[in-house]
């Protein structure tokens, strides 16, 4: 998506360790017009899937997930990284390693929000190694629902997550795929 790539070039920042910081428009401060455009593009790409729910992981995936859910007119569900006292009924859970935070999370979704037979679109802001998405897939499978596709704002194509998920047979649509980032801030997108 040209609009997202342009924004990454203009406002993104390459940090040491292959980190792409896009906090001022995607995952700390949200550009709502850009989110609307991204949601519309995912709706166009997945119009054939007829999802019943959108599933993401807190917290950075929520804005993108909301934009997609709004386009399809279906609920947005997000996996919580910590089971809180207000999520006290049965849950589906999965273990997810976060390279950004260098720690393991047990993510949970209340059993009342994903049902057998639900058609789920998974959404996240970034795809690098695929750990978060593997956790969400595990939750969907435990619920007896099905993954209709995976919507990614920015994929790090030089890491193995996208390749691994596609090899497993999942349809992955990424609006921007970064093939290379250099220490001087140069970002190369997949053509």
TrEMBL record:
Associated pathway: Purine metabolism; XMP biosynthesis via salvage pathway; XMP from xanthine: step 1/1
GO cellular component assignments: cytoplasm
EC number(s) stated in the UniProt entry for this protein: 2.4.2.22
Broad class of enzyme this protein falls into: transferase
Positions bound to 5-phospho-alpha-D-ribose 1-diphosphate: 128-132
Reactions the enzyme catalyzes: XMP + diphosphate = xanthine + 5-phospho-alpha-D-ribose 1-diphosphate
Residue ranges of domain Phosphoribosyltransferase in the record: 32-157
Localization (cell): Cytoplasm
Keywords linked to the UniProt accession: Cytoplasm, Glycosyltransferase, Purine salvage, Transferase
GO biological process: purine ribonucleoside salvage; xanthine metabolic process; XMP salvage
Domain of life: Bacteria
Record-linked SUPFAM superfamilies: PRTase-like
Binding site residues for xanthine: 20, 27, 156
An annotated Gene Ontology molecular function: xanthine phosphoribosyltransferase activity
HAMAP family noted in UniProt: XPRTase
Subunit structure: Homodimer.
Summary of the function given for this chain in its UniProt record: Converts the preformed base xanthine, a product of nucleic acid breakdown, to xanthosine 5'-monophosphate (XMP), so it can be reused for RNA or DNA synthesis.
Family (UniProt): Belongs to the purine/pyrimidine phosphoribosyltransferase family. Xpt subfamily.
Protein name: Xanthine phosphoribosyltransferase
